[in-house]
Design a protein that fits this description.
Elements lengths: L3 H18 L5 H11 L7 H12 L6 H11 L17 H14 L2 H15 L11 H11 L1 H13 L31 H49 L1 H8 L14 H25 L5 E3 L1 H8 L11 E3 L6 E7 L5 H15 L5 E6 L3 E3 L1 H10 L5 H4 L12 H12 L7 E6 L11 H10 L2 E6 L13 H4 L5 E4 L3 H12 L1
């Protein structure tokens, strides 16, 4: 990293990979990054990381991809580490050293231990085109991190530990006959109960802090293991080859139905801005806006004609407040995506005064109040909770029944100011799709859009009838990724 030409070529490779995964990096930003690197100490990786992050990344949701690519391209000198200071330790001694290092949060020792665990137990073969997933599993199992976490928690509960042992003594808060509260009147009854209740609450808080500390300590070593595996792979095959096998992707390009827990967390961070943008555009699309008289501009123009308003000035009327109606499929075939849909509904509910939400499987249920309660409580809304009133018979999707019920019960309540979003895969289990019922709804509302979480290549195969619904919709779009949903929102703006 101290060789300037090597640093420039590494930066170029990093920029190329960022562009490949979808991060927009302009030529000017590339040049800015190169100039910035000439002014910072290249031996300090943290400084180099911060410098490139400020120069190349403009959106917070791209940070995870940048950090991973940075680790790959700036992983070291390009050769395996020559010194192995822990190679002489037996496995049992290595395990003891790991327990002590995790308990003491010794960062340098954790790095050395991670290198040794990867060398001994990861099973990485030179030249093998792997992403390191199985190596991570093998090294983690050898380290027995769950047992170390349990030991940390047990140590915190000891009298001399950090867990404030003995907190629960006399802490029920309900009775007077505690072991410590028998000396006088203040130690019993209400006073002792209140004190015991406080101690019980403090003990619960301390237990949670102990668990969080143990989890954090173990996760720090897991991160060191991952970094050691990446360094080993890069030293063996080079950054470009490792990047291809790892399939680095942005959160917005991950299929929502197949996303991991970490990827789902990254997606949740993007829901708020997406909901805000969608709300604004739907408000503009809700209805045609007539122009209205502008008194101020008319009087201003009349000043040139002696106060006589020969010319009338107008201005656009304020956008109407739209009625947003969301009809969401929460059946098993789209359960993973419906979780995202429900989180989007909660985000929309905080930005709209007129949102109505419906869930359906083989029945129809209005969940407007459920969404509002979840937003007020600051919690997520699961598909199982949303589907409680939406299952009528056996829990298999029945789009025909749902569309007829929706049209007959609710269509008269809609107006040209209403915008309807249908979210579902249009798989009817070979029942009548009731297209005419959806057409009735479409004729009453301002706009009707259909978002299908299923990849387009599967449309109209088997029991999918999405093409039969398409003629009565303003748009039918695939929405299996955040990028596709954002593109749909942008298409409404244009």
């Amino acid at each position: 990293m101290t060789d300037e030409p090597a640093t420039e070529s590494t930066l170029t490779a990093l920029v190329d990979e960022l562009r490949t995964v979808g991060v927009a990096v302009s030529v000017g930003e590339h040049l800015d990054a190169a100039r910035a690197l000439a002014s910072v100490p290249l031996a300090d990786r943290d400084v180099v990381r911060a410098t490139l992050q400020c120069s190349l990344i403009k959106r917070a949701e791209h940070l995870d991809a940048f950090n991973l690519l940075f680790e790959l391209h700036f992983a070291g000198t390009g050769s395996a580490p020559s010194s192995q200071p822990l190679a002489g330790l037996a496995d049992s001694e290595l395990a003891d050293a790991l327990r002590l290092a995790i308990g003491a949060s010794d960062a340098e020792m954790l790095r050395l231990l991670a290198e040794e665990y990867v060398r001994r137990f990861a099973g990485l073969e030179p030249g093998a085109p792997v992403a390191g997933v199985f190596a991570m599993i093998a090294a983690s199992e050898a380290a027995n991190l769950d047992a170390i976490r349990d030991d940390l928690l047990a140590a915190g509960r000891q009298p001399g530990g950090d867990g404030a042992a003995g907190v629960g003594a006399g802490s029920s808060g309900e009775g007077a006959g505690t072991a410590e509260g028998t000396g006088d009147g203040e130690g019993t009854g209400g006073g002792g109960g209140a004190g015991g209740g406080w101690r019980s609450g403090a003990g619960a808080i301390q237990a949670r802090l102990d668990r969080a500390g143990a989890d954090r300590a173990v996760d720090d070593f897991r991160a060191e293991l991952q970094a050691a595996i990446r360094r080993t792979l890069v030293a063996d095959r080079g950054a470009r080859a490792v990047t291809k096998t790892m399939r680095v992707r942005l959160a917005e390009d991950v299929n929502i139905t197949n996303a991991s827990a970490a990827e789902q967390e990254a997606m949740l961070a993007s829901i708020g801005p997406l909901a805000q943008r969608l709300t604004k555009i739907l408000a503009q699309q809700a209805a045609y806006r007539k122009r209205r008289l502008s008194v101020r501009r008319t009087l201003h123009l009349a000043m040139g004609t002696g106060g006589v308003p020969f010319r009338l000035a107008t201005e656009p009327a304020p956008p109407p407040r739209p009625d947003i109606v969301v009809l969401a499929d929460v059946s098993g075939s789209v359960a993973a995506f419906s979780r995202f849909t429900l989180n989007l509904l909660i985000a929309l509910d905080s930005r709209l005064s007129r949102l109505r939400a419906f869930s359906f499987v083989d029945g129809l249920s209005e969940i407007t109040e459920l969404v509002s309660e979840a937003r007020a409580a600051g919690r997520q809304l699961g598909p199982a909770e949303a589907a409680r009133g939406a299952i009528r018979l056996n829990g298999s999707s029945d789009y025909g029944y749902v569309m007829r019920e929706f049209a007959s019960e609710y269509a008269r309540q809609f107006s040209r100011r209403t915008v309807v979003l249908v979210v579902g895969d249009a798989r009817t289990n070979y029942t009548d799709p009731a297209v005419s019922a959806l057409a009735e709804v479409s004729e009453r509302v301002g706009k009707l859009y259909w978002l299908n979480p299923e990849p387009r290549r599967y449309w109209d195969q088997g029991d999918s009838v999405i093409s039969r619904y398409a003629p009565v919709c303003a748009q039918v779009r695939e929405c299996s990724t955040l990028r596709q949903i954002a593109d749909f929102v942008q298409s409404l703006a244009s």
